[in-house]
Specification:
One of its GO terms (biological process) is regulation of mitochondrial ATP synthesis coupled proton transport. Keywords: Membrane, Methyltransferase, S-adenosyl-L-methionine, Transferase, Transmembrane, Transmembrane helix. By secondary structure, the chain is an alpha/beta fold. It has two domains: 2-75, no CATH class; 86-247, Rossmann fold. The protein contains eight helices and eight strands; from the N terminus they run ααααβαβαββαβββαβ. It has helices at residues 2-22, 35-46, 54-75, 95-104, 121-127, 140-153, 187-197, 232-235, and strands at 111-115, 132-136, 160-163, 177-180, 203-207, 218-220, 227-231, 246-247. An eight-stranded mixed beta sheet has the order 3-2-1-4-5-7-6-8. The longest helix is centred in the first third of the chain and has 22 residues, at 54-75.
């Protein structure tokens, strides 16, 4: 526990120092911005410079590398705990994606597990709807950040709690709702785990990357923000006809 808070404190100090050094040019960025947003902003700022200025080019490259280094602080801790074929980097959900997940949870109640909860944004949104949420995250820095934010927002641990645990090694049978935003390469393996552990009354919601062998019950959104809902009663029950997908 002490190590976790030390890591979180060190990151916050590095982040504040970083903002101080780069000045007002990046005031629009926050700690919750994804690496794509940061790099896109950098490209737009530096693309107009001529390539015949080696010092400026080198400085731009160094700045981009520093952003990658900052992002790796979030992405890498905890990776050593997970087999290479199950490693998934941190990438936060967008606002539209979060809203799509909440729509797919309408009419649902009870416990919810967010697998790879990151900075906790899905957990916070679901807890506001009355779910008893648990965020599983192996990155101790992200876990610490989410816990501090929950305390700052006054959210009790009975409503939203964050555990620095590997969900691959956790039995999820006690959860009625599961949300996931992981890489496509692990979805098939995760599907087999959930089929073995979840009850027929459970619902699983996948963000951006669907389960390859499951028929979705409903979907929300389009493109990168699309999410799919799967009712385990349909997933685990052999059927000659796939359930009709409804756009809520």
């Amino acid at each position: 526990m002490c190590v976790m808070y030390v890591e979180t404190y060190l990151f916050s100090r590095i982040y504040n120092l970083f903002k101080l050094c780069i000045g007002n040019d990046f005031q629009g960025l926050t700690m919750e911005d994804s690496v794509e947003v940061i790099l896109q902003d950098n490209r737009s700022r530096f693309s107009h410079h001529s390539p015949d200025k080696p010092i400026l080019t080198a400085a731009s490259g160094a700045l981009l590398m520093s952003f990658y280094g900052l992002w790796s602080i979030f992405a890498l801790p905890g990776f050593r705990k997970v087999p290479i074929n199950l490693k998934v980097p941190y990438l936060p959900s967008s606002g539209a994606q979060t809203q799509n997940v909440m729509r797919l949870l309408q009419g649902r109640t009870g416990s919810l597990a967010d697998l790879g909860s990151g900075d906790g944004r899905l957990v916070f949104a679901a807890s506001s709807l009355g779910f008893q949420c648990t965020g599983f995250e192996i990155n101790s820095i992200l876990t610490g950040y989410a816990r501090i934010k929950a305390r700052w927002m006054g959210i009790p641990t009975t409503t939203a709690r964050f555990v620095n645990e590997d969900f691959w090694k956790t039995n999820l049978s006690g959860y009625k709702n599961v949300t996931v935003f992981l890489a496509p390469g692990v979805m098939e393996v995760l599907g087999r785990k959930l089929e073995e552990e979840l009850g027929d009354d459970a619902r699983v919601i996948a963000c951006r990357f669907p389960f390859p062998d499951w028929a979705a019950t409903a979907s929300e959104g389009q493109g990168l923000d699309q999410s799919w809902a799967y009712d385990m009663a349909h997933v685990c029950q052999p059927s000659t006809e796939a359930p009709q997908i409804s756009n809520l």
